[in-house]
Amino acid sequence: xxxxxxxxxxxxxxxxxxxxxxxxxxxxxxxxxxxxxxxxxxxxxxxxxxxxxxxxxxxxxxxxxxxxxxxxxxxxxxxxxxxxxxxxxxxxxxxxxxxxxxxxxxxxxxxxxxxxxxxxxxxxxxxxxxxxxxxxxxxxxxxxxxxxxxxxx
Length: 153
Description:
Layout: E1 5-7, E2 13-15, H1 20-33, H2 37-52, H3 58-70, H4 75-118, H5 122-152
Antiparallel strand pairs: 1-2
Helix pairs in contact: 1-4, 2-4, 2-5, 3-4
């Protein structure tokens, strides 16, 4: 589904109509798929919000990212909250911030339980050992993509 785009006076483009439920489902999905630390999370947000869905312009995304990096605390979550607020004001920011964290928390709790319960078995040790290089590759690729775009602007 494509959305029409309106231009604002400061040359930042925002979609005219993104339903709250579209955004809700996106933030829920992001909470489940965002891993690899801030670089991976920011790269996923950039790919989804700027490139794929066109919910926020490249310029506004990079401006928000730079601002969030100056603030103390987790910049990826701050960026999610900002974009949620931008799309649906206070409720959007609260939902984006909450869904950015909760699914990951449940995944980590489940993985912790698996490790505590079955961590001495060969298959679980192998699975956890195999996850490390995959996450490292995702973070390096994400840092390269975002870093390249930041330096070009």
